[in-house]
Design a protein that fits this description.
This is Apea-like HEPN domain-containing protein. By secondary structure, this protein is an alpha+beta fold. It has 17 helices and nine strands. It has a five-stranded antiparallel β-sheet. Helix 7 crosses helix 10 (311-326) and helix 12 (354-370) runs antiparallel to helix 13.
Amino acid sequence: MRITPELKNKVIEIVDEFCFNHKKFQESPEEFCCQQHNDGLILYTINSHQIINDTTKIAVRQLYRSRAIDQKVRALARLIQQKANINCYASELINPLLNFFCKLINQCIQEDSSLEDLINQELPKEINSIRRDLIKKREFGFPYHMLGLTQGIILSDSISIELSQDNDLSDSNKKHYEFDRHLSFNAFIKIKIKEKISPKLGLDRAKKINSFVANFINFDCHFINHKETPFSPCIASNAKIRNTYDFYLVFNHRNERSKSDTLRFLYNKADGENYWKNLLDCLCNDEYQKDSEVILSLMTLASDFSKKRRVIDIIVNSINWYSDAFVEDNKESQIVKCVTAIESLVNYGENTNSEKSQDSKLIDMIEATLNNTSEEVIENTINDINKLIESYRDKKVVLSKHNSYSGVTENFRLRVGKLYNEKDRASFESKAQEIYKARSQIVHGSGLTESLSFCPLKFCRETIYNAICYFYSFGLKRDDYKNKLPIYLEKIK
């Protein structure tokens, strides 16, 4: 990496700040610490003997940090992370850089070398050392209880499900794990990060992939399971568990009581075994090649990081919201989450071109007026500009009123309807309008005045399933969906 003047100046500023702090401390330790305390600063020290192996070469045994130094080191870390294109969080570079300053200052004193020369020599070495020690290929495994799972499953090159081993946890740690959980773990979702990456960034990305994989498996099972209360075969270690059994008492005027209860068959092992068998058949059997291709594409693309938001990302977001809705006991919150899941698929925040064209017309007219000296042309153009401004103003008023509620609702209704076949479209458009209206009542404080005429969870997962089928044909990798996907949906017959 080339050491730019900007980078060099930031390093010199930090060295000067360390030297200033060291001098102040040597002159009066009590005054320096008191000033740090009064300024609301916490005094941190860097002990050189912990960093430099040869203690005979230590000239400055301790460096004193301040808030100003911490801010400058954070700024330097961000700059190095960007310039050197290191696949990590900038915060992960702070401790290595602080150690570097300790070594740099001692080296500068011992060798009596120019600071700028040392920066040119040592900073590239330090960056290479950070890259070598911090950036590596990483794999993570997340524990689950998977109902009825009897063998491992490979979902993509970087995602697999593996059965747990007896030695995954010690007996004491296993007791801690099982203390407040209904079920112990029997499997792991294993995530391989394809690129070299730092520990924290790698873990965060793996957690997102892991969450989607588990949510997709449960969503897939809910869709193909036609029971009134579908079960979830994939139960995470931190999952919100829906209780299997619940009840309440009803008292009458004679103080006699009766019991009303709810029993959910969520943890049926036989159903779990059937689901995993069906999933394996789908992945391995040529008869289900299309389904297998869709699942493989979802898993592969979900594990590929992209700086641009793609179609796969809105599907991931939607399935995650659905999973939150499924374990939500509050009916109103469940409706809000279901609508959010569907809205992720059909509302993209796309810009209309009509306003842009109005603006460009206005600019063209003004430029024509400024470039023309004829009074008659100028007068006519000014009249045209005034008319355009008035029509533009009127149109904005209409658009603002329309888009405030009805425009967004209409988009939602029509686009959801397009995800269903023509025969069922009117029915599902009606459901879309009903659930969106209910959501608006809830979020604006009115509350739900009457129950929906259908199950929001079932409607949500059917919509997501249909969206996956259509979006797969559109292209899961595409990042131009904000403008192109609405047009694609409009063309669906």
